[in-house]
Design a protein that fits this description.
2 domains; globular; Rossmann fold; 164 residues; four-stranded antiparallel β-sheet; 5 helices; alpha+beta
């Protein structure tokens, strides 16, 4: 007699997630009873009409915002029981953001924009710069490492943001 293997929770697991906001005295319910499971190594897309809650959902998935209700587990962590420092550590070590507007720091060079998050991980300044330079070299930007974002093309800024 064969039995089915138990269903394993995903690397990301959302159950009954809800999020609402108050805007001009009006209660806006953005997410209602969202359930989602994503296994490690899987890719997925979030599609929907303008105003349907995609950005709110991404902010919750990326630990930039917390839901009002439901259960959220990320890589085995119960997100509701994590403190802000723990959430920041998870974002720094396990989540990568690809922002539409790149969010590069304009006063820093491409090299320093890539090296900065490594320093937040406790990597030494010297090693952060070496790793960042190798990363920029991999995407063909080693020769532009000391340029600021305003001096880079849109595609070059995008590659710097991805490496960051």
């Amino acid at each position: 007699m064969m039995t089915e293997a138990p269903t394993l929770p995903g690397f990301i697991s959302l159950q009954g997630i809800g999020k609402s906001y108050q805007l001009a005295g009006q209660h806006l319910s953005i997410l209602n009873d969202v359930c989602l499971s994503i296994a490690s190594g899987d890719s997925c897309g979030i599609l929907g009409a303008s105003g349907s809650g995609k950005s709110t959902q991404l902010n919750i998935l990326g630990l930039l915002d917390l839901p009002d209700c439901g259960q959220y587990r990320f890589a085995g962590h119960n997100i509701f029981s994590a403190n802000p420092d723990q959430l920041a550590a998870i974002r720094n070590q396990q989540i990568g953001f690809g922002f539409q507007s790149f969010n590069l720091l304009p006063r820093l060079s491409a090299l320093d924009n890539v090296a900065l998050p490594l320093s937040y991980r406790g990597v030494s300044c010297h090693e952060s710069v070496e790793q960042a330079l190798r990363m920029l070299d991999q995407v063909g930007l080693a020769e532009r490492a000391h340029h600021r974002p305003a001096d880079l093309s849109g595609g070059q800024r995008q590659r710097v943001a991805i490496e960051r």
